[in-house]
Amino acid sequence: MTFARPLRMLVPAIAVLAAALPLSASAAGAKRTITLSASGTVKAAPDMASISTGVTSEGQTAQDALSKNTDAMTKVVSTLKEAGLKAKDIQTTDFNVSPVYERKKDEQAAFITGYRVSNNVNITVRDIDKLGDVLDKVVQAGANEINSISFGIAEPEKMKDEARRLAMTNAIDNAKLYAEAAGVELGPVIKITESGDYTPRPYRAMAAAAPMMAEAKQVPVEGGTMSVEAKVQVSWELR
After folding, report:
1. In angstroms, how far is the first alpha carbon of the chain from the final one?
2. CA-CA to 58 of 20 to 30 Å: which in 23, 80, 185, 239?
3. How confident is the prediction along the chain (239 residues), in pLDDT tens digits per residue?
4. pTM
5. What angle do CA 175, 179, 181 make, to 5 degrees?
6. What number of other Cβ atoms are within 10 A of residue 79's Cβ?
């Protein structure tokens, strides 16, 4: 399956004034300053995905349920490795053995009728074009739980740096505009403060996994767009 990947875009955000222009000194010798806040947003198609999946099995005894689950999970992991996933990208996140209870009548105490074993792994797919195929193979191999799919950027630092540059550019452009409108000149930068969460986040809809049908159809998956926003507050001296 091939994903249509939008080109990385730089989207300038609207600068917000953090403080008004203090064009007149409040005391003799005090410096005139301007302080502005601005943001920059960078968007890009995700290039990796994380899948939470696993196998839940039941049996009359704990050993029976465990044996069924082990066989199924071994097949799932082997299938993933055959599909090209490395061992470091397959991580066990949960393993649970619990009794299954049944209550025939309200006045009777619940009694154990069997046991349930669950084994879940988190899979990192680094070639997002193969995501649909990986989902197909996981379900065909015996996984009966797909809990979530999330998308990400393999090298988010590059996006963060682009967002920071854009935020600073927006702040400078706005500062020049206000200084010109006020009939003053922009002096040296006094202070730069950065704020905000730079974790790439979904910009549009995320994928939904569908169970496999009898016919061999690839699971439809849409990665959407990820975005990173940087926020800065900058102060300049005015001349």
Report:
1. 59
2. 80
3. 444 444 444 444 333 333 444 444 444 467 899 999 999 999 999 999 999 999 999 999 999 999 999 999 999 999 999 999 999 999 999 999 999 998 777 777 788 999 999 999 999 999 988 999 999 999 999 999 999 899 999 888 999 999 999 999 999 999 999 999 999 999 999 999 998 666 666 543 333 333 333 344 566 777 788 899 999 999 999 99
4. 0.65
5. 120
6. 18
